[in-house]
Amino acid sequence: MSSENNQENENAGLPPVPSAPPAPRDASRRRFIGWLLGIVGAVVAVLLCIPLVRLVLYPLFAKTGEAGWSDLGPAEQYHSLAVPLRRVVKIQDIDGWRQTISQHVVYVTEGPQGNLRVLTAVCPHLGCEVAWNPQLNEFKCPCHGGTFKASGKYISGPPPRGMDTLPIMVRNGRLMVRYEYFRNLVPEKEVIG
Amino acid sequence: MPDLPPRVKPFRGPETKESLPEWLDQRTGWKPMLHTLLNERIPGGARWSYVFGSGLLFILLSQVVTGIFLAMYYVPSADHAHTTIAYLMKVVSDGAFLRSIHSYGASIMIILLVVHLTQTFLFGSYKGRRELLWLAGLVLFALVLGMAFTGYLLPWDERSYFATAVGTNVMSEVPVVGQWLKLAMRGGAGMGTLTISRFFVLHVFLLPAALLIFVGAHLLLFQKATPAGSPSAHPVAPRGKTGMFYPKQLVLDAAFALLLIVILALLAYFVPKALGPAANPADTQFIPRPEWYYRPIFQWLKYWEGPLAVVGILVIPGILTALLVGLPFYDRSPERRPWKRPVAVSVYSVVLLGLIALGIISYHVDNSNPAIRMQLRRQDIAEEQFMRQPFQPEMAGGTVAATAPQTTVASPLIAQGKQIFETKGCVACHGEGGAGTAMAIKLIGISQKLSSDQLEDLVRHPNATMTAGGMPAFPLSDDEMKALIAYLDSLK
After folding, report:
1. Distance between B466 CA and the closest CA of chain A, angstroms
2. Partner of B313 at 20 to 30 A CA spacing, among B73, B195, B304, B443?
3. Which residues, at least 6 apart from A87, have a Cβ–Cβ distance to it below 8 Å?
4. Can you list the domains of chain B with their CATH numbers?
5. Domains in chain A, please, with CATH?
6. B247 vs A130: CB contact, 8 Å cut-off?
7. pLDDT at residue B405 is higher than 70
8. Is the ipTM of this complex over 0.85?
9. pLDDT digit string, tens, across residues A41-62
């Protein structure tokens, strides 16, 4: 405190000309305080930036949740299927604070070896929703008449390939399916999202 | 020998020994500028009582930075504002912390403004060619109050919605232009999404631009006027000892800024601001109360109803404003010491203490009325409950079942039509319940645009646009067609 007063006394009576050079002893003291303020200021500034950076980068590290697996119910209800079963799966997409739910039709059916498979109802031709025709015992696309076997195998009509199978798994005794979209009008199945 | 021309140093490219600060100084002149700022002379030397101005500047900076980062997640519209703030507070890392810093920052800013104004008044620092400096300061005060008012609405929760509804209603009490002012402020008769847009533009573009201009003016005018310093110094030609701004005053200012950060951070961390349930204009129970800094005005207005309202709303505040604005023009005496200016100090103290008393009375009135107290408590509890609930994302459009009408199938004919719609594949492109998808138009309300005959014709023979979009012709039987049309008619 006394040094402060000395400085003020030294400066007392000086005309208010800002360019008056400070005394040499004073200059080193001023430089020291300058460094001190600069360092403390920089440390505080860095600390203050932490929450800002975390706020900005949040979406990059946000968990996307259940990676798109939809529940089709207990797996045992699909034992020895006589005909394909129509099911509607709900897909939740989280987009920041928005949620979109889209509904898609799938068929639970049996593959050639009697294993469970889930087919998307989207026709590989032009994307219409293929329906199971119980009279003909085959899938028939209502738009352009493509037909498929219960296993999804191509029979006739304009579609370039059979109905597309979706990835499935059984977890805790429940059949789970991951809904995917496929490119239409191409002979080979190709996932597009 | 003829005279040699004066020696000219050959050009050797840029001076290699020149340091970066020197290089910058030659181009910007920052060194003398900094020198002027740091060696500014304060009559009477550095003091703690001079830290409030720089403290205000610091909080303003904090508000700007936190505000920009909050805007990264905020959407100014009546149907998204609340969801985005809830998302920010409940989900985003440090979102609640930064929003609390911003919100508490507004309160601290108003406290500091009152202290800064009071100190300027008591120390007579408005005297001595400082009229414009004083006026710029008053404009800044008004702008900050405007920022507080407009920012308060933006979260669009119950509290902010109803408080702003009352606040804008008060404007309509202003004679002649009041009603128009209210409509212009709200963007219509009621509070709605246009109100949010207006408040957002004011809060984020117009008022900050004005703040920037007036802060700049305030600082330049301060630079020109030089610090007034101790109240015993002469306002124009101070004599006696002076101290330089640097280092002591700068250290005091920095210490105060640090104290402000610590207070804000502790408040924001341990008592984070809450967000209430989304604004529900139909809620008739809600008792609106403004934020604490508007409580004195809120209470004051209660006393002025009926024909005398104009006195309380316009005349008295008008006189006080005129007194404040004109202060450096009519108070020409060079005397700055408060104990030698009894009249000025008494009037100021009465007004300030009166405002504080009004604020206290307002809280007291609420607390002593059991019905109001209970309802205010319920509102607080609703806020706490809302904050405990997990974040609910907003349902968005697209192929969304949630937006499709839950048609209760009334007649068997419509039920049959619904089945045809779903089994013939219409649903694949037109969506569940005819809600529409990216591939085909929505069919809800189609019967208002097309007659049954037109619809039937289009299903049997799609036009060129429809065919190009993938719509096949459906050869339905007459019964099936009747059922399908009945179903389409039911989609409203």
Report:
1. 13
2. B195
3. A72, A105, A106, A107, A108
4. 40-234+242-388 (1.20.810.10), 401-490 (1.10.760.10)
5. 2-61 (no CATH), 69-178 (2.102.10.10)
6. no
7. no
8. no
9. 999 999 999 999 999 999 888 7
